[in-house]
Amino acid sequence: xxxxxxxxxxxxxxxxxxxxxxxxxxxxxxxxxxxxxxxxxxxxxxxxxxxxxxxxxxxxxxxxxxxxxxxxxxxxxxxxxxxxxxxxxxxxxxxxxxxxxxxxxxxxxxxxxxxxxxxxxxxxxxxxxxxxxxxxxxxxxxxx
Length: 144
Description:
Largest sheet: 4 strands, mixed
Number of strands: 4
Strand order of the largest sheet: 1-2-3-4
């Protein structure tokens, strides 16, 4: 199933009162076929994810992975200014070298450093870092 293609819809025989209804018929048929593609694309690969806030059943339709375009960050921007995660967040491990080589660093970024090591009593090797101009370890090593 393919998603609808706007370029397949022609109004050449539909945009003037003098247009022939017989000539418009193939254009209307093509437009309706494209509309059917849009409808049938709901929940299909390369289609649109069906969203229904009233039912958790439809959550199965959400994609397992969301990717932004090649040069853009993926941004979540709720009106409340708060993103709520109901479960655990998993950060992909990065080495110190990878963290330092990361482009587009900004204050407030958080990362998991896979090769973090203890280098002093006050720096216990906690692998979670935050960025404030430099990558800094969270220092509280309290366990739960």
